[in-house]
Amino acid sequence: MRRARQALFHTEKNMTNSLHLALPYIAAAQAQKHVTHNEALRILDALVMLAVDDRDLSSPPGAPAEGSRYLVKPAGSGGFAGKDNQIAHFRDGAFAFFAPQPGWIAYVIDEGVTLVFDGSNWVPLLGAAPQLQNVSRLGLAATADAINPLSARLNSALFAAKTVADGGNGDLRYTLSKESVAKTLSLLFQNDFYSRAEIGLTGDDDFHVKVSDDGATWREGIVVASDTGKVSFPQGAVGIREKLTAARTYYVRTDGSDANDGLVNSAGGAFLTIQKAIDIVFGTLDLDAFNATIQLGDGTYTVGGNATAPRLGTGTVTIQGNATHPQNVIVNASSVGCFRAASGASLIVKDMELRTTGGTNCLVASVGGFMQFGNVRFGTSGSSHMRAEIGGLVEAIGNYSIVGNAGSHINMGLCGVVRISGRTVMQIGNPTFSGAFVLGTTAGMAVLNGNTFTGAANGKRYDVTLNAGVNVTGAGVNYLPGDAAGTTATGGQYG
Fold first, then answer.
1. Do both 80 and 187 map to the same domain?
2. Counting CB atoms within 10 angstroms of each CB, which of 25, 44, 301, 409 has the fewest?
Protein backbone atom coordinates (compact mmCIF):
# COMPACT_ATOMS: atom_id res chain seq x y z
CA MET A 1 0.00 0.00 0.00
CA ARG A 2 2.79 2.39 0.91
CA ARG A 3 4.53 1.67 -2.41
CA ALA A 4 1.24 2.34 -4.28
CA ARG A 5 0.91 5.74 -2.61
CA GLN A 6 4.51 6.54 -3.37
CA ALA A 7 3.98 5.60 -7.03
CA LEU A 8 0.87 7.82 -7.28
CA PHE A 9 2.68 10.71 -5.63
CA HIS A 10 5.61 10.25 -7.99
CA THR A 11 3.24 10.27 -11.00
CA GLU A 12 1.45 13.45 -9.92
CA LYS A 13 4.75 15.07 -9.05
CA ASN A 14 5.82 14.69 -12.67
CA MET A 15 2.52 16.18 -14.01
CA THR A 16 1.88 19.87 -14.66
CA ASN A 17 -1.93 19.77 -14.04
CA SER A 18 -4.27 17.97 -11.66
CA LEU A 19 -6.06 14.88 -12.99
CA HIS A 20 -9.73 15.98 -12.68
CA LEU A 21 -9.97 19.76 -12.85
CA ALA A 22 -6.67 20.30 -14.72
CA LEU A 23 -5.55 22.79 -12.12
CA PRO A 24 -1.94 23.95 -12.81
CA TYR A 25 0.71 22.82 -10.39
CA ILE A 26 3.39 25.12 -9.10
CA ALA A 27 6.66 23.71 -10.33
CA ALA A 28 9.71 23.44 -8.14
CA ALA A 29 11.81 26.59 -8.11
CA GLN A 30 9.14 28.23 -10.30
CA ALA A 31 9.30 32.00 -10.58
CA GLN A 32 6.11 34.05 -10.21
CA LYS A 33 4.35 31.26 -8.38
CA HIS A 34 1.38 33.54 -7.76
CA VAL A 35 0.44 33.42 -11.44
CA THR A 36 0.02 29.67 -11.42
CA HIS A 37 -1.77 29.78 -8.10
CA ASN A 38 -4.20 32.45 -9.24
CA GLU A 39 -4.96 30.57 -12.44
CA ALA A 40 -5.86 27.52 -10.40
CA LEU A 41 -8.16 29.64 -8.28
CA ARG A 42 -9.86 31.04 -11.37
CA ILE A 43 -10.50 27.53 -12.65
CA LEU A 44 -11.93 26.55 -9.28
CA ASP A 45 -14.11 29.65 -9.35
CA ALA A 46 -15.43 28.63 -12.75
CA LEU A 47 -16.16 25.00 -11.97
CA VAL A 48 -16.91 24.62 -8.26
CA MET A 49 -20.61 25.07 -7.29
CA LEU A 50 -21.34 25.24 -11.01
CA ALA A 51 -24.39 27.35 -11.93
CA VAL A 52 -24.68 28.38 -15.58
CA ASP A 53 -26.82 31.15 -17.01
CA ASP A 54 -28.03 29.22 -20.04
CA ARG A 55 -27.66 25.96 -21.96
CA ASP A 56 -29.41 26.93 -25.19
CA LEU A 57 -26.67 28.97 -26.89
CA SER A 58 -24.65 27.54 -29.77
CA SER A 59 -22.70 30.79 -30.22
CA PRO A 60 -21.46 33.39 -27.75
CA PRO A 61 -24.06 35.85 -26.40
CA GLY A 62 -23.85 39.47 -27.43
CA ALA A 63 -22.87 41.07 -24.12
CA PRO A 64 -22.03 38.49 -21.48
CA ALA A 65 -21.38 39.66 -17.94
CA GLU A 66 -17.99 39.14 -16.38
CA GLY A 67 -17.93 35.70 -14.77
CA SER A 68 -20.93 34.39 -16.73
CA ARG A 69 -20.93 30.67 -17.47
CA TYR A 70 -22.72 28.76 -20.22
CA LEU A 71 -23.11 25.20 -21.43
CA VAL A 72 -22.34 25.21 -25.14
CA LYS A 73 -25.24 23.74 -27.10
CA PRO A 74 -24.18 21.45 -29.93
CA ALA A 75 -23.26 22.24 -32.60
CA GLY A 76 -21.17 25.18 -31.52
CA SER A 77 -20.43 27.97 -33.98
CA GLY A 78 -18.43 31.16 -34.04
CA GLY A 79 -16.54 31.53 -30.79
CA PHE A 80 -18.19 28.32 -29.56
CA ALA A 81 -17.14 26.19 -32.53
CA GLY A 82 -15.71 22.85 -31.49
CA LYS A 83 -16.73 23.40 -27.87
CA ASP A 84 -19.92 21.29 -27.76
CA ASN A 85 -21.14 20.61 -24.20
CA GLN A 86 -18.17 22.44 -22.71
CA ILE A 87 -18.42 25.02 -19.95
CA ALA A 88 -17.81 28.49 -21.36
CA HIS A 89 -16.58 30.92 -18.68
CA PHE A 90 -16.45 34.61 -19.64
CA ARG A 91 -13.53 36.34 -17.92
CA ASP A 92 -11.30 39.26 -18.75
CA GLY A 93 -13.31 39.93 -21.92
CA ALA A 94 -12.91 36.44 -23.40
CA PHE A 95 -14.24 32.92 -22.97
CA ALA A 96 -12.30 30.12 -21.34
CA PHE A 97 -13.59 26.61 -21.99
CA PHE A 98 -13.58 23.56 -19.74
CA ALA A 99 -14.39 20.06 -20.92
CA PRO A 100 -16.70 18.35 -18.41
CA GLN A 101 -16.04 14.92 -16.98
CA PRO A 102 -18.77 12.27 -16.47
CA GLY A 103 -20.65 12.97 -13.26
CA TRP A 104 -20.18 16.73 -13.22
CA ILE A 105 -23.32 18.56 -12.04
CA ALA A 106 -24.56 21.97 -13.20
CA TYR A 107 -27.56 24.07 -12.21
CA VAL A 108 -29.20 25.99 -15.10
CA ILE A 109 -30.37 29.30 -13.67
CA ASP A 110 -32.88 30.37 -16.33
CA GLU A 111 -34.69 27.00 -16.26
CA GLY A 112 -34.33 26.06 -12.61
CA VAL A 113 -33.15 22.53 -13.46
CA THR A 114 -30.15 20.50 -12.38
CA LEU A 115 -28.17 18.56 -15.00
CA VAL A 116 -25.47 15.92 -14.93
CA PHE A 117 -22.94 15.16 -17.67
CA ASP A 118 -23.18 11.50 -18.70
CA GLY A 119 -20.00 11.52 -20.80
CA SER A 120 -21.80 12.57 -23.97
CA ASN A 121 -24.55 15.02 -23.05
CA TRP A 122 -25.96 17.09 -20.23
CA VAL A 123 -29.10 15.31 -18.98
CA PRO A 124 -31.55 15.86 -16.08
CA LEU A 125 -30.00 14.82 -12.79
CA LEU A 126 -32.84 12.37 -12.03
CA GLY A 127 -33.11 11.15 -15.60
CA ALA A 128 -35.69 11.86 -18.28
CA ALA A 129 -38.33 9.95 -16.26
CA PRO A 130 -37.31 10.27 -12.61
CA GLN A 131 -38.52 7.53 -10.29
CA LEU A 132 -39.13 7.34 -6.58
CA GLN A 133 -39.55 3.74 -5.49
CA ASN A 134 -40.54 2.25 -2.12
CA VAL A 135 -40.79 5.61 -0.37
CA SER A 136 -42.15 4.91 3.10
CA ARG A 137 -43.58 8.41 3.66
CA LEU A 138 -44.27 11.45 1.54
CA GLY A 139 -45.51 14.80 2.77
CA LEU A 140 -46.48 17.66 0.45
CA ALA A 141 -46.43 20.84 2.53
CA ALA A 142 -47.41 18.57 5.42
CA THR A 143 -45.85 16.01 7.73
CA ALA A 144 -46.53 12.38 6.87
CA ASP A 145 -46.74 9.88 9.71
CA ALA A 146 -47.32 6.18 10.29
CA ILE A 147 -51.13 6.57 10.06
CA ASN A 148 -51.01 8.90 7.06
CA PRO A 149 -47.82 7.97 5.16
CA LEU A 150 -49.01 10.14 2.27
CA SER A 151 -50.05 13.57 3.47
CA ALA A 152 -50.64 16.74 1.46
CA ARG A 153 -51.79 20.26 2.28
CA LEU A 154 -52.92 21.96 -0.91
CA ASN A 155 -55.82 23.81 -2.50
CA SER A 156 -56.15 21.88 -5.73
CA ALA A 157 -54.83 18.78 -7.43
CA LEU A 158 -54.79 17.74 -11.08
CA PHE A 159 -54.54 14.29 -12.61
CA ALA A 160 -54.45 14.26 -16.42
CA ALA A 161 -54.51 11.27 -18.73
CA LYS A 162 -51.31 10.35 -20.53
CA THR A 163 -52.11 10.97 -24.16
CA VAL A 164 -51.59 8.60 -27.04
CA ALA A 165 -48.98 10.99 -28.42
CA ASP A 166 -47.02 10.62 -25.18
CA GLY A 167 -47.17 6.84 -25.29
CA GLY A 168 -50.33 6.45 -23.20
CA ASN A 169 -53.86 5.42 -24.18
CA GLY A 170 -55.68 8.64 -23.31
CA ASP A 171 -57.60 7.05 -20.42
CA LEU A 172 -57.31 7.83 -16.71
CA ARG A 173 -58.46 5.46 -13.97
CA TYR A 174 -57.90 6.04 -10.27
CA THR A 175 -57.72 2.57 -8.75
CA LEU A 176 -58.29 1.72 -5.09
CA SER A 177 -58.32 -1.84 -3.74
CA LYS A 178 -59.21 -3.33 -0.36
CA GLU A 179 -58.04 -6.60 1.13
CA SER A 180 -61.36 -8.50 1.36
CA VAL A 181 -65.15 -8.14 1.14
CA ALA A 182 -65.63 -7.32 4.82
CA LYS A 183 -63.06 -4.51 4.72
CA THR A 184 -63.77 -0.88 3.81
CA LEU A 185 -62.68 1.09 0.78
CA SER A 186 -64.09 4.59 0.82
CA LEU A 187 -63.65 8.31 0.41
CA LEU A 188 -64.32 10.12 3.68
CA PHE A 189 -65.37 13.77 3.53
CA GLN A 190 -64.78 15.92 6.61
CA ASN A 191 -65.50 19.41 7.91
CA ASP A 192 -62.57 20.62 10.02
CA PHE A 193 -61.61 16.94 10.42
CA TYR A 194 -65.13 15.93 11.58
CA SER A 195 -66.58 13.27 9.28
CA ARG A 196 -69.73 14.25 7.41
CA ALA A 197 -70.02 11.98 4.34
CA GLU A 198 -68.59 8.70 3.06
CA ILE A 199 -68.82 6.89 -0.26
CA GLY A 200 -67.43 3.52 -1.26
CA LEU A 201 -67.43 -0.17 -0.42
CA THR A 202 -68.09 -0.07 3.32
CA GLY A 203 -68.18 -3.53 4.85
CA ASP A 204 -69.27 -5.34 1.68
CA ASP A 205 -69.01 -5.06 -2.09
CA ASP A 206 -72.10 -2.88 -2.56
CA PHE A 207 -71.57 0.82 -3.28
CA HIS A 208 -72.75 2.99 -0.39
CA VAL A 209 -73.37 6.71 0.02
CA LYS A 210 -73.86 7.76 3.63
CA VAL A 211 -73.94 10.99 5.62
CA SER A 212 -73.62 12.08 9.24
CA ASP A 213 -74.31 15.32 11.07
CA ASP A 214 -72.12 14.48 14.05
CA GLY A 215 -69.53 12.01 12.78
CA ALA A 216 -70.97 9.24 14.95
CA THR A 217 -74.47 8.42 13.64
CA TRP A 218 -74.49 7.53 9.95
CA ARG A 219 -77.47 7.38 7.57
CA GLU A 220 -77.26 5.58 4.25
CA GLY A 221 -78.84 7.53 1.42
CA ILE A 222 -77.98 5.31 -1.56
CA VAL A 223 -76.97 1.67 -1.92
CA VAL A 224 -76.11 0.10 -5.30
CA ALA A 225 -76.15 -3.71 -5.16
CA SER A 226 -72.98 -5.20 -6.63
CA ASP A 227 -74.73 -8.33 -7.94
CA THR A 228 -77.69 -6.64 -9.68
CA GLY A 229 -76.88 -2.95 -10.08
CA LYS A 230 -80.22 -2.16 -8.46
CA VAL A 231 -80.34 1.14 -6.58
CA SER A 232 -82.10 1.47 -3.23
CA PHE A 233 -82.75 4.48 -1.03
CA PRO A 234 -82.78 3.31 2.62
CA GLN A 235 -83.98 6.70 3.88
CA GLY A 236 -86.42 7.24 1.02
CA ALA A 237 -85.94 9.66 -1.84
CA VAL A 238 -87.74 12.84 -2.81
CA GLY A 239 -89.16 12.42 -6.29
CA ILE A 240 -87.39 9.09 -6.90
CA ARG A 241 -89.20 5.79 -6.41
CA GLU A 242 -87.71 2.50 -5.37
CA LYS A 243 -88.40 -0.13 -8.03
CA LEU A 244 -89.37 -3.46 -6.52
CA THR A 245 -87.57 -6.60 -7.60
CA ALA A 246 -89.69 -8.88 -5.40
CA ALA A 247 -92.96 -8.78 -3.50
CA ARG A 248 -92.85 -6.44 -0.49
CA THR A 249 -94.64 -6.61 2.87
CA TYR A 250 -94.98 -3.72 5.31
CA TYR A 251 -96.10 -4.41 8.85
CA VAL A 252 -98.40 -2.28 11.00
CA ARG A 253 -98.87 -2.97 14.71
CA THR A 254 -100.53 -1.20 17.60
CA ASP A 255 -97.15 -1.13 19.37
CA GLY A 256 -95.18 -0.02 16.30
CA SER A 257 -93.78 3.39 15.37
CA ASP A 258 -93.98 5.43 12.19
CA ALA A 259 -90.27 6.14 12.70
CA ASN A 260 -89.57 2.48 11.81
CA ASP A 261 -89.13 1.24 8.25
CA GLY A 262 -92.10 -1.15 8.47
CA LEU A 263 -90.19 -4.11 7.10
CA VAL A 264 -89.97 -6.22 10.26
CA ASN A 265 -92.93 -7.65 12.18
CA SER A 266 -91.89 -6.38 15.60
CA ALA A 267 -92.48 -3.36 17.80
CA GLY A 268 -89.12 -2.02 16.71
CA GLY A 269 -89.73 -2.64 13.02
CA ALA A 270 -93.43 -2.16 12.23
CA PHE A 271 -95.32 1.07 11.54
CA LEU A 272 -97.89 2.37 14.00
CA THR A 273 -100.43 3.72 11.52
CA ILE A 274 -102.01 2.26 8.41
CA GLN A 275 -101.73 5.60 6.63
CA LYS A 276 -97.93 5.56 6.97
CA ALA A 277 -97.75 2.25 5.13
CA ILE A 278 -100.14 3.48 2.42
CA ASP A 279 -98.06 6.63 1.93
CA ILE A 280 -94.88 4.57 1.53
CA VAL A 281 -96.41 2.17 -0.99
CA PHE A 282 -98.22 4.74 -3.11
CA GLY A 283 -95.74 7.56 -2.68
CA THR A 284 -92.29 5.95 -2.86
CA LEU A 285 -92.53 2.60 -4.69
CA ASP A 286 -92.57 1.49 -8.29
CA LEU A 287 -94.29 -1.88 -7.91
CA ASP A 288 -93.37 -3.00 -11.40
CA ALA A 289 -95.11 -6.41 -11.58
CA PHE A 290 -94.74 -7.19 -7.87
CA ASN A 291 -97.41 -7.01 -5.18
CA ALA A 292 -97.25 -4.95 -2.01
CA THR A 293 -98.95 -6.13 1.18
CA ILE A 294 -99.74 -4.09 4.27
CA GLN A 295 -100.06 -6.62 7.07
CA LEU A 296 -102.01 -5.46 10.14
CA GLY A 297 -101.27 -7.11 13.46
CA ASP A 298 -104.07 -8.13 15.82
CA GLY A 299 -105.61 -5.23 17.72
CA THR A 300 -107.83 -2.20 17.24
CA TYR A 301 -106.88 0.71 14.98
CA THR A 302 -108.79 3.96 15.45
CA VAL A 303 -107.60 5.47 12.16
CA GLY A 304 -107.79 3.80 8.77
CA GLY A 305 -106.15 4.94 5.55
CA ASN A 306 -106.74 6.79 2.30
CA ALA A 307 -105.11 6.14 -1.07
CA THR A 308 -105.56 9.21 -3.24
CA ALA A 309 -103.37 8.56 -6.29
CA PRO A 310 -102.75 5.64 -8.67
CA ARG A 311 -100.09 3.12 -7.77
CA LEU A 312 -97.06 2.91 -10.04
CA GLY A 313 -96.70 -0.49 -11.69
CA THR A 314 -99.03 -3.40 -12.34
CA GLY A 315 -98.72 -5.07 -8.94
CA THR A 316 -101.57 -4.96 -6.44
CA VAL A 317 -101.76 -3.30 -3.02
CA THR A 318 -103.45 -5.36 -0.31
CA ILE A 319 -104.26 -4.36 3.26
CA GLN A 320 -104.90 -7.53 5.22
CA GLY A 321 -105.49 -8.63 8.78
CA ASN A 322 -106.02 -12.09 10.27
CA ALA A 323 -107.36 -14.54 7.67
CA THR A 324 -108.32 -17.16 10.26
CA HIS A 325 -109.80 -14.79 12.83
CA PRO A 326 -110.70 -11.55 11.03
CA GLN A 327 -112.47 -10.30 14.17
CA ASN A 328 -109.04 -9.99 15.84
CA VAL A 329 -108.12 -7.06 13.60
CA ILE A 330 -110.54 -4.15 14.01
CA VAL A 331 -110.44 -0.82 12.22
CA ASN A 332 -112.82 1.45 14.15
CA ALA A 333 -112.57 4.85 12.47
CA SER A 334 -114.47 7.99 13.31
CA SER A 335 -113.71 11.09 11.26
CA VAL A 336 -112.86 9.85 7.76
CA GLY A 337 -114.00 6.23 7.61
CA CYS A 338 -111.94 3.06 7.41
CA PHE A 339 -110.54 2.90 3.87
CA ARG A 340 -110.89 5.10 0.81
CA ALA A 341 -109.56 4.65 -2.73
CA ALA A 342 -109.79 7.82 -4.80
CA SER A 343 -108.41 9.52 -7.90
CA GLY A 344 -107.43 6.30 -9.64
CA ALA A 345 -106.08 4.50 -6.57
CA SER A 346 -106.68 0.74 -6.20
CA LEU A 347 -106.87 -1.11 -2.87
CA ILE A 348 -107.69 -4.62 -1.71
CA VAL A 349 -108.97 -4.89 1.88
CA LYS A 350 -109.48 -8.28 3.53
CA ASP A 351 -109.40 -10.37 6.71
CA MET A 352 -110.60 -7.77 9.24
CA GLU A 353 -113.60 -6.14 10.90
CA LEU A 354 -114.59 -2.61 9.91
CA ARG A 355 -116.53 -0.14 12.05
CA THR A 356 -117.21 3.60 11.82
CA THR A 357 -118.84 6.32 13.89
CA GLY A 358 -119.84 9.90 13.21
CA GLY A 359 -121.56 9.47 9.84
CA THR A 360 -118.64 7.95 7.94
CA ASN A 361 -118.41 4.90 5.66
CA CYS A 362 -116.36 1.73 6.07
CA LEU A 363 -115.23 1.42 2.44
CA VAL A 364 -115.32 4.17 -0.20
CA ALA A 365 -114.34 4.25 -3.88
CA SER A 366 -114.43 7.77 -5.29
CA VAL A 367 -113.29 9.73 -8.35
CA GLY A 368 -112.27 6.66 -10.32
CA GLY A 369 -110.94 4.75 -7.32
CA PHE A 370 -111.18 0.94 -7.17
CA MET A 371 -111.86 -0.81 -3.85
CA GLN A 372 -111.94 -4.62 -3.59
CA PHE A 373 -112.68 -6.58 -0.43
CA GLY A 374 -113.10 -10.11 0.90
CA ASN A 375 -113.39 -11.97 4.20
CA VAL A 376 -114.45 -8.72 5.84
CA ARG A 377 -116.78 -8.37 8.82
CA PHE A 378 -118.84 -5.20 8.49
CA GLY A 379 -119.61 -3.94 11.99
CA THR A 380 -121.58 -0.92 13.14
CA SER A 381 -121.34 2.07 10.82
CA GLY A 382 -122.61 5.61 11.25
CA SER A 383 -123.35 5.74 7.53
CA SER A 384 -122.79 2.92 4.99
CA HIS A 385 -120.71 -0.22 4.97
CA MET A 386 -119.60 0.61 1.44
CA ARG A 387 -120.07 3.55 -0.91
CA ALA A 388 -119.16 4.08 -4.58
CA GLU A 389 -119.30 7.60 -5.99
CA ILE A 390 -118.05 9.80 -8.82
CA GLY A 391 -117.02 6.90 -11.04
CA GLY A 392 -115.60 4.79 -8.22
CA LEU A 393 -116.00 0.98 -8.11
CA VAL A 394 -116.40 -1.24 -5.04
CA GLU A 395 -116.16 -4.99 -5.69
CA ALA A 396 -116.41 -8.07 -3.49
CA ILE A 397 -113.68 -10.59 -4.35
CA GLY A 398 -114.62 -13.03 -1.59
CA ASN A 399 -117.33 -13.98 0.84
CA TYR A 400 -117.96 -11.72 3.82
CA SER A 401 -120.27 -11.10 6.77
CA ILE A 402 -122.39 -8.34 8.27
CA VAL A 403 -122.26 -8.12 12.06
CA GLY A 404 -123.44 -4.56 12.81
CA ASN A 405 -126.08 -1.97 12.02
CA ALA A 406 -125.67 0.81 9.45
CA GLY A 407 -127.58 3.46 7.55
CA SER A 408 -127.18 1.21 4.51
CA HIS A 409 -125.07 -1.74 3.56
CA ILE A 410 -124.54 -0.61 -0.04
CA ASN A 411 -124.60 3.04 -1.10
CA MET A 412 -123.90 4.20 -4.64
CA GLY A 413 -124.34 7.58 -6.30
CA LEU A 414 -122.91 10.01 -8.81
CA CYS A 415 -122.16 7.21 -11.29
CA GLY A 416 -120.45 5.04 -8.70
CA VAL A 417 -120.70 1.24 -9.08
CA VAL A 418 -120.88 -1.59 -6.52
CA ARG A 419 -120.42 -5.11 -7.85
CA ILE A 420 -121.08 -8.19 -5.68
CA SER A 421 -121.60 -11.34 -7.70
CA GLY A 422 -121.61 -15.02 -6.75
CA ARG A 423 -120.71 -14.40 -3.09
CA THR A 424 -122.02 -15.71 0.21
CA VAL A 425 -123.01 -12.90 2.56
CA MET A 426 -123.60 -13.93 6.16
CA GLN A 427 -125.77 -11.72 8.37
CA ILE A 428 -125.07 -12.27 12.03
CA GLY A 429 -127.30 -10.85 14.78
CA ASN A 430 -130.04 -9.52 12.49
CA PRO A 431 -128.39 -6.19 11.58
CA THR A 432 -130.66 -3.19 11.03
CA PHE A 433 -130.36 -0.72 8.15
CA SER A 434 -132.06 2.57 8.94
CA GLY A 435 -132.11 3.76 5.31
CA ALA A 436 -132.10 0.59 3.21
CA PHE A 437 -129.91 -2.44 2.56
CA VAL A 438 -129.17 -0.87 -0.85
CA LEU A 439 -129.39 2.91 -1.17
CA GLY A 440 -128.89 4.24 -4.71
CA THR A 441 -129.15 7.71 -6.18
CA THR A 442 -127.94 10.01 -8.97
CA ALA A 443 -127.11 7.35 -11.57
CA GLY A 444 -125.33 5.02 -9.19
CA MET A 445 -125.34 1.32 -10.09
CA ALA A 446 -125.27 -1.90 -8.05
CA VAL A 447 -124.69 -5.28 -9.74
CA LEU A 448 -125.76 -7.90 -7.20
CA ASN A 449 -126.48 -11.12 -9.08
CA GLY A 450 -125.96 -14.70 -7.98
CA ASN A 451 -125.33 -14.09 -4.28
CA THR A 452 -126.40 -16.18 -1.30
CA PHE A 453 -127.58 -14.25 1.76
CA THR A 454 -127.72 -16.13 5.07
CA GLY A 455 -129.33 -14.89 8.25
CA ALA A 456 -131.78 -12.01 8.37
CA ALA A 457 -131.74 -8.23 8.40
CA ASN A 458 -134.11 -5.46 9.41
CA GLY A 459 -135.07 -2.50 7.27
CA LYS A 460 -135.98 -1.61 3.72
CA ARG A 461 -134.55 -3.90 1.06
CA TYR A 462 -133.68 -1.13 -1.40
CA ASP A 463 -134.32 2.55 -2.06
CA VAL A 464 -133.36 3.57 -5.61
CA THR A 465 -133.91 7.10 -6.96
CA LEU A 466 -132.69 9.67 -9.49
CA ASN A 467 -131.83 7.24 -12.29
CA ALA A 468 -129.84 4.89 -10.10
CA GLY A 469 -130.14 1.16 -10.79
CA VAL A 470 -129.93 -2.19 -8.99
CA ASN A 471 -129.29 -5.21 -11.21
CA VAL A 472 -130.23 -8.54 -9.62
CA THR A 473 -130.79 -10.28 -12.99
CA GLY A 474 -134.46 -10.95 -12.25
CA ALA A 475 -133.99 -12.42 -8.76
CA GLY A 476 -137.13 -10.69 -7.53
CA VAL A 477 -138.10 -7.94 -5.11
CA ASN A 478 -137.47 -10.14 -2.04
CA TYR A 479 -133.96 -11.18 -3.10
CA LEU A 480 -132.11 -8.63 -0.99
CA PRO A 481 -132.08 -8.84 2.84
CA GLY A 482 -134.57 -6.81 4.86
CA ASP A 483 -138.06 -6.99 6.32
CA ALA A 484 -139.61 -4.10 4.37
CA ALA A 485 -140.32 -3.78 0.66
CA GLY A 486 -137.95 -1.83 -1.49
CA THR A 487 -138.94 1.26 -3.49
CA THR A 488 -137.92 3.10 -6.66
CA ALA A 489 -138.63 6.71 -7.64
CA THR A 490 -137.59 9.49 -10.06
CA GLY A 491 -136.16 7.12 -12.64
CA GLY A 492 -134.68 4.58 -10.24
CA GLN A 493 -134.56 1.01 -11.58
CA TYR A 494 -134.59 -2.42 -9.89
CA GLY A 495 -134.67 -5.73 -11.65
1. no
2. 44
